[in-house]
Amino acid sequence: MTEKTQYLAEKVAEMEERGETWDLRTLQTPSKPNVKVEGKEAILLAANNYLDLANDPRVKAAAQDAIDEFGMGAGSDWSIAGYMEVQEELNQAIADFKDTEAGVSFQTGFSVNAGVLPQLLEDGDVYLSDKLNHGSIIDGVRLSPADVKVYDHTDMTSLEETLESVHEDYKRMIVVTDGVFSMDGDIAPMDEIQDLADEYGAMTYVDDAHGEGVLGGGHGIASEFGLEDRIDFQMGTFSKAAGGFGGMLAGDEEVINYAYNTARTWLLSAGYPPAIAAANMKALEIIENEPDRVEKLWENREYFVSEMESMGWDTGRSETPIVPAMVGDSNKAKELGNRLFENGIFALPIVFPMVPRGEARIRNQLSAGHTEADIDEALRVYEEVGRDLDLI
């Protein structure tokens, strides 16, 4: 440590006192429902691996075959000399999966929002953004020359009032929202959002990262609400239910052409390995052909939520397989996380700045791969530790 950076150590110490640091744990197995973490066997409730595809043999085989055919690295930025044929095939698979004219893969989901949103609007335009949107959306709209108006979380009265107050003052408007909100597990009322946007002549941009593989039979929030041909920009990711890596954008052909020709995150970042593209494509195929995975995911979610609430746990606004166990105090949430881990349940505390101060929680994420025995054991530990800590 140097004298120049001493202030950072002081900031970390302050964060630790408030319980607002992240204690990283190391997995020694693939991401799957039952893992080994730092030598300890545990049931994993902290992953985005909703459909248990991260370690699927078919997905792994697709990646291995692609390594044999295309090598390891892309060799360059996709925009220069790293764009391989498997990547173009994936783009078509995205369009087919999302039922849109075109699609394109990005290096990460974050890079879609951080790269595309700054390019869509200009000075004299405005974004209307949900108060609890993901940080990548917040960063993306901040980088735009357009203005930003924030409406109350999933509050359609607030959205309509905001649209009414600004629609005559701006040339273009985009309503941007998460589809499934990642910390609370609630769902944006996308049908009402789309109707209001259409009424006021606004475009719509939805972050479907936690909706793919979960909503709409696995196809996401546009399919859930029958809005495939009305939402202007459908952003998503392969790193959650698809078990892979990378982001995606789906929409009309002009949308996709404009996006990858202007988003600096796409143009100026190295392409991910072609093996990833092949694995992502195989995952989309599995989601398409095995709807029972999505059905099992929802069965597990309903059972877990019902039992947690019957014990007295507050599961917040959850409507999806993201199920928070609300605690409030950050240090108390971290204590709960540690106690769960000691008892073989790996579920992480979520603290500020991921959530507002005073709203710390354990975020549980169910998987289609969890067995009833896994869930029963998690529930047993939650009841035992929750009572011991006077949380229920």
Question: Any overview of this molecule?
Answer:
43% of the residues lie in helices and 16% in strands. With 392 residues, the protein is of the alpha/beta class. It has two domains: 151 residues, Alpha-Beta Complex (Aspartate Aminotransferase, domain 1), CATH 3.90.1150.10; 222 residues, Aspartate Aminotransferase, domain 2. The chain has a seven-stranded mixed beta sheet with strand order 3-9-8-7-6-4-5, sandwiched between helices. A three-stranded mixed beta sheet has the order 1-2-11. A hairpin with a 2-residue loop joins strand 1 and strand 2. The termini are far apart. The model has no long low-confidence stretch (mean pLDDT 96).
Key words describing this protein structure:
392 residues; Aspartate Aminotransferase, domain 1; 2 domains; 16% strand; 14 helices; single chain
Briefly say what this structure is:
The chain is an alpha/beta fold and 392 residues long.
Q: What name does the CATH topology of the largest domain carry?
A: Aspartate Aminotransferase, domain 2
Number of strands: 13
What is the total number of structural domains? Answer: 2
As laid out across the biggest beta sheet, the strand order is 3-9-8-7-6-4-5
Question: What assembly state would you assign to the polypeptide chains in this entry?
Answer: single chain
Name the beta content range. 15-25%
Itemize the secondary structure elements and their pairings.
Layout: H1 6-18, E1 34-37, E2 40-44, H2 57-70, H3 85-98, E3 102-106, H4 109-120, E4 126-130, H5 135-142, E5 147-151, H6 156-166, E6 173-178, H7 190-200, E7 203-207, H8 221-225, E8 233-237, E9 247-251, H9 253-262, H10 264-267, H11 274-289, H12 291-311, E10 322-328, H13 330-342, E11 345-346, E12 349-350, E13 360-365, H14 372-388
Parallel strand pairs: 2-11, 4-5, 4-6, 6-7, 7-8
Antiparallel strand pairs: 1-2, 3-9, 8-9, 10-13, 12-13
Helix pairs in contact: 2-11, 3-11, 4-5, 6-7, 12-14
